[in-house]
Amino acid sequence: xxxxxxxxxxxxxxxxxxxxxxxxxxxxxxxxxxxxxxxxxxxxxxxxxxxxxxxxxxxxxxxxxxxxxxxxxxxxxxxxxxxxxxxxxxxxxxxxxxxxxxxxxxxxxxxxxxxxxxxxxxxxxxxxxxxxxxxxxxxxxxxxxxxxxxxxxxxxxxxxxxxxxxxxxxxxxxxxxxxxxxxxxxxxxxxxxxxxxxxxxxxxxxxxxxxxxxxxxxxxxxxxxxxxxxxxxxxxxxxxxxxxxxxxxxxxxxxxxxxxxxxxxxxxxxxxxxxxxxxxxxxxxxxxxxxxxxxxxxxxxxxxxxxxxxxxxxxxxxxxxxxxxxxxxxxxxxxxxxxx
Amino acid sequence: xxxxxxxxxxxxxxxxxxxxxxxxxxxxxxxxxxxxxxxxxxxxxxxxxxxxxxxxxxxxxxxxxxxxxxxxxxxxxxxxxxxxxxxxxxxxxxxxxxxxxxxxxxxxxxxxxxxxxxxxxxxxxxxxxxxxxxxxxxxxxxxxxxxxxxxxxxxxxxxxxxxxxxxxxxxxxxxxxxxxxxxxxxxxxxxxxxxxxxxxxxxxxxxxxxxxxxxxxxxxxxxxxxxxxxxxxxxxxxxxxxxxxxxxxxxxxxxxxxxxxxxxxxxxxxxxxxxxxxxxxxxxxxxxxxxxxxxxxxxxxxxxxxxxxxxxxxxxxxxxxxxxxxxxxxxxxxxxxxxxxxxxxxxxxxxxxxxxxxxxxxxxxxxxxxxxxxxxxxxxxxxxxxxxxxxxxxxxxxxxxxxxxxxxxxxxxxxxxxxxxxxxxxxxxxxxxxxxxxxxxxxxxxxxxxxxxxxxxxxxxxxxxxxxxxxxxxxxxxxxxxxxxxx
Lengths: 340, 487
Known about the structure:
The complex is a heterodimer. By secondary structure, chain A is of the alpha/beta class. Chain A has 13 helices and 5 strands. Chain A has helices at about 1-30, 35-45, 60, 65-75, 90-95, 125-135, 145-155, 155-170, 215-235, 250-270, 275-280, 295-320, 330-335; strands at about 50-55, 75-80, 105-110, 240, 270-275. In chain A, strand 4, helix 10 and strand 5 (about 270-275) form a beta-alpha-beta unit. In chain A, helix 9 (about 215-235) packs across helix 10. By secondary structure, chain B is mainly alpha-helical. In chain B, helix 1 runs antiparallel to helix 2.
């Protein structure tokens, strides 16, 4: 029996080594969209100079021309947008780790964060996404909500999702558009030339859904925003709010809810709203494959408009700021409140 | 709990560790009984009671059979046990089938009656454990085995989890003595058991489940399929059901060996058979031999001459068809095999041909390749078996007829063109997988299973196991239930 157990242990160790080797190889070569989360964390930690950091979901990944932002605003953009389903608290925590004094943060979360309690979880997609992220960029899990970590590691469904997630690593069948390698050095997803002008359309018979305002969820998310903004202020990081682009039909079906949301944000979060939903919505011809993902012309149009508003806000801020505030300074962890 | 699930692996490791740490037959049997109840109850705990009650009934009746000498009483007790088991099977498996047909028959004669509908759920494995129990009491009646005195030992035998859901249908003479004697850990057997389990997983997850996607797509949309798609799907089904069922048996045998038990072999490379008689000696051996011992011989076997032997064989296959399921499809499938086996028997008797090979003999002869004559006979047997599978796989007789018609009359066009092609892996990849299996099995046909590679150097063996494990982890699709669970 002893010999058998020793052999089993050795064989299991061999499988462990093979598994780790395989995973290491794929983490380097993997083209999964969600793997971009790790790349973006690295990008934020290493991006030089005076920075403007965009925090949100895939509306940013698919909807920002960072080169234009850099040209127009003279700041180095970092586009943190990957996957809205990860939730707003995750995005805020992820950004906070590598923000520096003098950074400007532009918050552009999708509206659903403020409407649904557990956006995406009902579709079973969230757990799957987390599981894949656990394999590709396990460090991202430290920003995950506690209940997600509990569900992943302490429930049968979660463990199954982790095992399924392992299957998805290195999956060659993924949509080539949703590829980690399609992100540029700023964190924008650059659409392949042949597909860049594709236009979104709803499937026949589908009409935009109207969501009534969910005040409880709004309050809870606004609470996260307040904490984040307070932290940023304490660390000399300026925060702005720009509503995401949304399909015009969808916006019109939900205008009341969006206005309510913006009113709550304006009332409770000390943040300047540079772009509102009624201005940020765009016609269908500007969208690529969902109500948030822009095609080439949509991306250009949105970025131009956003730059104009951001430039105005930054000029105002500069005019009001004391002369010592130059931006592009030391990491927060080193300078801390001492920068003030 | 199914073999190909994560809970089963955890369960097996826990049972293995606890089992060998007990080191006492008495305690080990109690643990196996508890494990069997947990394993079975994982699916639906309500039916545990049915299994245990049926087992207890047979245990008690077997004691009564052995305690009396008067043949009338002995017959009465064994009859009661067999009757009770058949009644259980009849109720859970055949009630709705017989009722529907009776209502149809009476309706045809002008008598309209309202059917009494029961939503009967078929308890998993009922066909297997009732047959195993019946075999036991008949063997006690025949004085081939002694009755078990302790009910818990007997229930541990009935509820032995490796073979509880889908066999092999064990013989009391083989398995019971193993429950009643002390066990010692045999490293070689355990290692080979692990290999056999891995081979089972490979066949189930890499082959059967992948083939199932194609087959289900083709049979589910037969009207949109070209004849050759359906022909290919039928060939793939032949391998799907083989890989599925033999995989279950391999995992069962391997798991049992880890616990120090040796179960009977259930498959012996059936697709290398030279005729249908040999096929049935190599396919689902535990069921074929069960029918031989407990139905064919009591009916008279071959004692009454060629005609009565042929009649008895035919009856066996008819019953075997019905055993598989309450549907006319299975009856037709059994009938076709019955006719085929009878024809082979008569032909062999007329031509003075030697008796078909036994499962222990090397199928297809000892050479590297079969002779041309053998290859033709193998291919013919495979083609006949595959044609019969159409009735087994199709949902209704009308579907089976439609599929056969499409295969033979519309090979290159569908009746309703829709551009639909069977889903899953491309047929070329599936063919490659199937041919790989055939090649491995051909070169391993002297061994008990496809992964019996104990003679290879360790680095090569471990590389092979590692390759298979990672192929399973990375390429297995969402697993489906074992086909034979429904029987």
